[in-house]
TrEMBL record:
GO terms for cellular component: cytosol; riboflavin synthase complex. This is 6,7-dimethyl-8-ribityllumazine synthase. 5-amino-6-(D-ribitylamino)uracil binds at residues 22, 56-58, 79-81, 112. The active site is at residue 87. (2S)-2-hydroxy-3-oxobutyl phosphate binds at residues 84-85, 126. GO terms for biological process: riboflavin biosynthetic process. Its EC number is 2.5.1.78. Belongs to the DMRL synthase family. Keywords: Riboflavin biosynthesis, Transferase. Transmembrane segments: none annotated. GO terms for molecular function: 6,7-dimethyl-8-ribityllumazine synthase activity. Pathway: Cofactor biosynthesis; riboflavin biosynthesis; riboflavin from 2-hydroxy-3-oxobutyl phosphate and 5-amino-6-(D-ribitylamino)uracil: step 1/2.
């Protein structure tokens, strides 16, 4: 029996982060968490590129452009908070479907660090308070998947 799994070592990995500027109070905390995880696990700062989009809806477009640009993984970060209109459902659903679709057609892993929350408090909890930092978690998943992907390419 053989078991394949990735490791949490970013040595020689090149990582792209696509992050929404909308709800930046929270998304910047996600970015801090992702950068903390990457740097703690040997990713050189020079091997991290950050691409900022106006909102979460635009994340799949930029992610699609980056798929063939020599990255080992892409991390998608953003925050969508329910408001009083149907807009939340549209954005949350479409960004999720967009990233999922790109993940299926891409040769590199794309991790999903986009918070879709009901309240400001939930967003706070998931961007570094009670529920941890989803940016950190997405970066750890990116490291593991990038290394697992390298094993599968051999």
């Amino acid at each position: 029996m053989k078991i394949f799994e990735g490791i949490f070592d970013g040595k020689d990995l090149k990582i792209a982060i696509v992050i929404s500027r909308f709800n930046s109070f929270f998304s910047e905390r996600l970015l801090e968490g992702a950068l903390d995880a990457l740097k703690r696990h040997n990713v050189k700062e020079s091997n991290i590129d950050i691409f900022k989009t106006p909102g979460s809806f635009e994340i799949p477009f930029i992610t699609k452009k980056l798929i063939n640009k020599n990255y080992d993984a892409i991390i998608a970060l953003g925050v969508v908070i329910r408001g009083e209109t149907y807009h939340f459902e549209v954005v949350a659903n479409e960004v999720s479907k967009g990233i999922a679709h790109l993940n299926l057609i891409s040769d590199i892993p794309i991790t999903f660090g986009i918070i879709t929350s009901e309240t400001l408090e939930q967003s706070m909890d998931r961007s570094g308070a009670k529920a941890g930092n989803k940016g950190f978690e997405a970066a750890m998943a990116a490291l593991e998947m990038a290394n697992l992907n390298k094993q599968l390419k051999v």
